Amino acid sequence: MKHSTPAFEAVKPNIGSSFTSLKFLRNENIKSHVWHYHPEVELIFVCGGSGKRQIGSNISYFTDGDLVLMGSNLPHCGMTNENTNNDYEMVIQFKPDFLGESIWELPEMQRISNLLEKAKAGIVFSENIKKSIGKKIVEMHESSSLERLVKFIEILDALASTQDYRILNAGKYYLQTQVEDNERINLIFNYVKDHFKEQITLEEMADLANMKVPSFCRYFKKITNKTFTQFVNEYRITHSLKLLAERPLSITEVCFESGFNNFSYFNKTFKEYIKKSPSQYRKEFNFFIE
């Protein structure tokens, strides 16, 4: 079987602009299966809908849209597909030096500079920030020339001023700077993405990475700051969240559909990650959306 490495995505700024601003209507930007990276920093606002996000080694589930900021060359999958049911998606991409190499050294830009440093590990913003900034992103996109640039700087400053966010990849995410690791680690990521419903052994992954099992375990932990078992469980639990929220399956069916072959282990692992049982999660989620 052929395994793909993350694709390099070439990004061109809008004509007459120093950065790229794109708006996609529902199903126009189906890239959830495309694992890619680019030197541009990327701000994505998904209006409505739900789905899985994979940014670096983090796999998580979003509902009622999303707002994320990703640093240069941080590998990620697209946010939306035909099942997301979002209204639209806004994508802003810019080189870290799009305003010049020394501008971030100015005192007025210190907050934004700190924000871009944090974005190297991926940032997801809270519900309130998502809604308020989402509106500003649309206004910025519909502006022209200098007004668009000014509004974009204001958006970055607003994001830099809030504490309502979560870093997606804890600790240093080595994959971003160690380009030579991309091919090996992403063979592993893509394999898990395509086969998480099946049994995956350490021996298989070590062989795929052309390493011995102990070396592979050390390598994976160094790159992702989590064990391989934790990574696979996180992927499976994220998928189970989507199933619990969106499909009328029994808890047992969700367990096996998510790649777990032991119901007790699924319940135990779910509680470890989500801090509640699958049935409690579904009940609270249904109450929230009613």
Automatic annotation (TrEMBL):
Domain of life: Bacteria
InterPro entries linked to this entry: Homeodomain-like_sf, HTH_AraC, HTH_AraC-typ_CS, RmlC-like_jellyroll, RmlC_Cupin_sf, Tscrpt_reg_AraC-type_HTH
PROSITE patterns membership: HTH_ARAC_FAMILY_1, HTH_ARAC_FAMILY_2
Entry keyword annotation includes DNA-binding: yes
SUPFAM superfamilies: Homeodomain-like, RmlC-like cupins
Species: Chryseobacterium arachidis
Annotated PANTHER family: ARAC-FAMILY TRANSCRIPTIONAL REGULATOR, TRANSCRIPTIONAL REGULATOR MTLR
Keywords tagged on the record: DNA-binding, Transcription, Transcription regulation
Protein name: Transcriptional regulator, AraC family
